[in-house]
Design goal:
Blueprint: H1 9-20, H2 29-33, E1 38-43, E2 49-56, E3 59-66, E4 70-76, E5 82-87, E6 92-103, E7 106-117, E8 122-125, E9 145-146, E10 152-159, E11 166-173, E12 179-183, E13 189-194, E14 200-207, E15 212-217, E16 224-230, E17 237-241, E18 247-253, E19 259-265, E20 282-287, E21 293-298, E22 304-307, H3 310-322, E23 327-334, E24 339-346, E25 349-357, E26 362-368, E27 381-387, E28 393-399, E29 412-416, H4 432-439, E30 443-447, H5 457-461, H6 470-484, E31 488-498, H7 500-511, E32 518-522, H8 528-539, H9 544-552, H10 560-565, E33 579-584, H11 593-604, E34 609-614, H12 624-642
Parallel strand pairs: 29-30, 29-31, 31-32, 32-33, 33-34
Antiparallel strand pairs: 1-2, 2-3, 3-4, 5-6, 6-7, 7-8, 9-10, 10-11, 11-12, 13-14, 14-15, 15-16, 17-18, 18-19, 20-21, 21-22, 23-24, 24-25, 25-26, 27-28, 28-30
């Protein structure tokens, strides 16, 4: 870890000036392919400082500045994969980082948290000196609580035990990173909830072998059981604590099939639904550092909000009304919610951060995520719906080519971009890949096929067991609807996807080979039986993750023939379009052998295929260098096989 200390405000300002100085020219590919100039902005508890991750001329930085005064410090994070920055208190910031690491015969994501002393301007790793830590564990660096009046935090970690590692709670000093055991957990423990005074509010346990879920509290010296059930999966999500600490807050399914918020009292009783919408699920909860819940964000094409305090709900609605065409995200607050930190994206914005003064009802723009891409270069994107062949409505995002009038939107080349997950969804936002291709004249369709999250449990469950079948039909039906409408030239269609989207791209090439002129898959799954075998080997046949994937895709034993039939690697002979495979060497989510299997199968059939390995890259295209490399590869591939759109 290297350091850049002192005030670099001039460097940041110079970068912004250079980025915005030439407004007439189309932004270069680097403006889209590189990581955002500013990301992951956080506000201090006193509302006086902002911390953020920045990418300046290829250098990754964590920067903190005081409002009205300028940069306090900037730390070079090039030697780590910094994922987030948060304030522990007004004196310390926390940087979370991770990297793929090989240990004990396999790869895993090693994560860590670092504290940054804003006065001393030094940087230390938390939990660095505890010899009892179990080796080669992922998820290390999680912080579940802060100690009131002290520069200490609570962190869970797997510790050495007599047999299986135990997930215990530690108290960690932010100044030197040293820790001591606070409360001993069990090998089945999966989470902790603790208040700012160190009182243990809850311990969550799940036994994969016995499928037993238990929730405990400790009001005194002894543990008391709050709730227990048998379940093949963790039955619901405990996400926080009620403000008066009288109940835990959980997310579960509501009567209308959407995720809703409930209170679970410490005597084991669930309340009626606290926060619920008829048309959207609870996407996340808004909590403080000790996971005290203040409100919720609902999903959907644009987020919306409810707070326990109705005045906060109304204030957030006022902000959203100001940016009616964009997606507005609540990112944090300072000084008893007197100041909101807001992120605005989509609807003509490439991503901007604002501070909202609730007392004076004033908005102030502070930072731009992508200053090289100004408003006139943000391609228009519409929320659309179309009918699948069985009548199901498929909500989607359609991004129009930049600077085409409605009359000119005919016979356009199309890029289809199915999302990953698959239980995720595309919504209104600035999508760097979709926006790049739209800026170069291509129409971009992002279909939320059945099985996508965010549109109710019925829509999500409609995708169970439908990989390569109805889920793929939904993608196909979107392309054909645009062709029938005269928007798309049927001889100029390419499908591009990552993760599950990569599987969908390969499935498109395998099962509808006459529909696409090119197929590009980033970190795709190509062999489903092999994927399930890997999950069972890595986690064990009793693990809930393995059970989940079998429920989503199909049973490894009872549905082997079906799994073979929907695996693109088994249908290489059917491919007509050229295929580009891109995969990070350090991918711990989808092993690179999934791309290698696909490449070998296509080569055996003498098909046009190219596999590109991204050195040092993970599953998420986390570095500017490899993300830009990926976009350049895709750009050349699409231009070669669809021709230039401008």
């Amino acid at each position: 870890m290297g350091f850049i200390m002192g005030n670099i405000r001039s460097v940041l300002i110079a970068a912004i000036v250079l980025a915005t100085g030439n407004a007439a020219a189309l932004p270069p590919i680097e403006a889209y392919g590189e990581l955002p100039f500013i990301s992951d902005v956080s506000i201090s508890p006193d509302g006086e400082k902002l911390a953020y991750l920045a990418n300046v001329d290829g250098i990754d930085l964590m920067s903190v500045f005081k409002l009205g005064e300028g940069t306090i410090m900037a730390v070079n994070t090039d030697n780590t994969n910094a994922r987030y920055v948060r304030f522990a208190n007004d004196r310390y910031a926390i940087v979370g980082a991770s990297e793929a690491t090989r240990a004990y015969g396999g790869r895993f994501d090693y994560s860590a948290a670092f504290s940054v002393n804003l006065e001393k301007q030094d940087f230390v790793q938390l939990l660095r000196t505890n010899d009892e830590l179990y080796p080669a564990q992922s998820g290390l660096g999680k912080i579940v609580g802060h100690v009131a009046g002290e520069d200490r935090v609570f962190m869970p970690a797997y510790m050495r035990g007599g047999g299986d590692p135990i997930y215990s709670l530690l108290k960690v000093d932010l100044d030197n990173g040293r820790s001591r055991n606070f409360v001993r957990g069990r090998s089945t423990t999966i989470d902790w909830f603790v208040d700012q005074n160190g009182k243990i509010l809850a311990r969550e346990d799940y036994d994969n072998r016995r499928n037993e879920y238990k929730l405990w509290t400790r009001p005194g010296r002894d543990w008391e059981l709050v709730y227990e059930t048998e379940s093949e999966f963790v039955p619901f999500s405990v996400v926080g604590v009620k403000q008066d600490k009288s109940a835990l807050i959980v997310i579960g399914k509501s009567r209308n099939g959407y995720d809703a918020l409930y209170e679970l009292s410490f005597d084991g009783n669930f309340s009626p639904e606290i926060f619920v919408r008829e048309d959207a699920s609870v996407e996340r909860v808004i909590t403080d550092a000790n996971r005290i819940v203040y409100g919720v964000e609902y999903g959907g094409m644009r987020p919306s909000y409810d707070f326990y305090d109705a005045d906060l709900t109304q204030a957030m609605q006022r902000v959203q009304n100001t940016f009616a065409d964009s997606a507005v995200y609540f990112m944090g607050w300072g000084e008893e919610f007197d100041t909101f930190l807001i992120f605005v994206t989509g609807g003509g914005s490439s991503g901007e951060y604002y501070l909202y003064d609730r007392v004076n009802n004033e908005l102030k723009r502070t930072l731009g995520a992508r200053p090289k891409i100004t408003q006139e270069f943000v391609a228009p994107a519409d929320v659309i719906e179309y009918k699948a062949r069985d009548g199901l409505t498929i909500p989607s995002i359609l991004t129009w080519p930049l600077n085409r009038t409605p009359e000119e939107r005919q016979q356009m080349p199309l890029i289809v971009m199915p999302h990953g997950g698959p239980e995720a969804y595309d919504s209104v936002r600035f999508d760097w890949m979709a926006q790049y291709f739209a800026s170069r004249g291509y129409l971009v369709l992002q279909p939320n096929f059945r099985g996508s999250d965010g549109f109710g449990v019925d829509f999500l469950l409609a995708g169970r067991g439908e990989w390569g079948l109805k889920m793929q039909d939904d993608v196909t039906d979107g392309v054909q609807a645009l062709i029938r409408g005269g928007y798309v030239d049927p001889e100029r269609v390419c499908i591009i996807g990552a993760s599950y989207g990569g599987y969908s791209a390969l499935a498109g090439g395998a099962f509808t080979p006459d529909l696409y002129q090119c197929v590009a898959a980033i970190a795709p799954v190509s062999d489903l039986p092999r994927m399930l075998d890997d999950e069972r080997r890595d986690r064990g046949r009793d693990h809930w993750v393995y059970s989940y994937w079998q429920a989503v895709i199909g049973d490894r034993r009872e549905e082997r023939e079906k799994l073979d039939q929907i695996s693109p690697a088994n249908h290489a002979a059917s491919f007509m379009a050229p295929v580009l495979l891109i995969h990070g060497r350090d991918d711990t989510v989808v092993p690179i052998r999934q791309s290698e299997i696909m490449e070998r199968a296509l080569r055996r059939e003498d098909k046009n295929v190219r596999l590109v390995w991204l050195r040092g890259e993970d599953h998420y295209l986390s570095s500017s260098e490899t993300r830009l490399e990926t976009l350049k590869l895709l750009d050349a591939f699409v231009r070669e096989h669809l021709g230039p759109a401008l």
